[in-house]
Design brief:
alpha+beta, four-stranded antiparallel beta sheet, DNA-binding
Length: 283
DNA sequence: AGACAAACCTGTCTGC
DNA sequence: TGCAGACAGGTTTGTC
């Protein structure tokens, strides 16, 4: 489900929890990715009684910082994960795995809740300033919103990689945050064929792709992310970007470039659906 | 190195 | 109406 724009949308809508204190932690016993349930002991030690000082994002990971312990709750939403701020008197959504009760703020008491039906998500604890030591973050690449991903960097990253560009974009060790929707979108924006080998990218085309990645992600972010099925932000609202997608999930439909009469095609690369216009994304 | 499949899970949609 | 099968925004692991 969630790629960088969706995760960043969640991060922004989590702003109201900054400054609140954690008064209680509840966890389910169902295993998430990695085969283990959320560790109540670890999450409790990191957060109980502590004040939330910030909510950060790196690629598709969220970090909820706690002031007194200098620890962070590390969350990856997987495919169907949701992180919501909900009134404490509301019933738990199905497949809820973590509930953090929060004090402070105005109005009724609120919880921070994580739910995830498919259980591909991750909830863990990292140490502030030493995020890299957490195995999930150890190999994570540059963030295309908070870091600079320009043509120069992309050109450098693609040297020595003979994989298809689409596959390269999905590799979180290079650029962190691009997923299956925005990989297709960025390649269309840059007029590049998804099957082009990464190391064949010219400097000029590396510039175009770098610009496209940034533009596609920022545009999706402006619309609050893409909700095809499950995604909602921390307030429970869906994103609007599905109405603005250029190619994703548009097989058989007309290319949206005004000067192109191509028909969007779908194929499978690396076991994932790739959408492109064979006419304007040419070699 | 990289392509591919399968695995982890549940929910939803399609076609018979 | 019901049921089997395909498929889904992510990532890891194993095989060839």
């Amino acid at each position: 489900m969630p790629e960088l724009p969706e995760v960043e949308t969640v991060r922004r809508t989590l702003a109201p929890i900054v400054g609140r204190r954690v008064t209680k932690v509840w966890t389910s016993r169902l295993a998430l990715r990695g085969g283990k349930p959320v560790s109540k002991r670890k999450v409790g030690a990191a957060s109980m009684g502590a004040r939330i000082s910030d909510v950060r994002r790196w690629g598709k990971y969220l970090l909820v910082d706690f002031e007194q312990t200098q620890r962070s709750l590390l969350v990856h939403l997987g495919m169907t994960g949701r992180l919501r701020v909900i009134r404490s008197d509301q019933e738990h959504a199905p497949h809820t795995h973590l509930v953090m009760s929060l004090s402070g703020g105005r109005g009724a008491p609120r919880d921070l809740r994580f739910s995830d039906p498919r259980r591909f998500g991750i909830v863990s604890v990292a140490t502030q300033g030493r995020e890299r030591e957490h195995p999930a973050l150890a190999k994570l690449g540059v963030d295309p919103i908070t870091d600079t991903v320009d043509g120069e960097l992309l050109y450098r990253l693609t040297r020595g990689s003979r994989r298809a560009l689409k596959t390269f974009l999905l590799d979180q060790r290079a650029i962190a945050g691009v997923g299956n929707i925005y990989a297709s979108e960025a390649l269309w924006q840059a007029r590049l064929p998804p099957g082009l080998r990464a190391h064949r990218l010219s400097r000029k085309r590396a510039e175009a792709l770098a610009a496209a990645v940034g533009e596609v992600l920022r545009r999706a972010l402006e619309h609050g992310g893409t909700s095809l099925r499950d995604f909602v932000n921390a307030d429970g609202h869906e994103g609007e970007h599905s109405h603005y997608l250029w190619v994703y999930d548009r097989e058989g439909e007309a290319c949206k470039r005004s000067d192109c009469s191509g028909i969007i095609r779908r194929r499978v690369q690396q076991g994932r659906a790739t959408f492109s216009c064979p006419r304007c994304q040419s070699k």
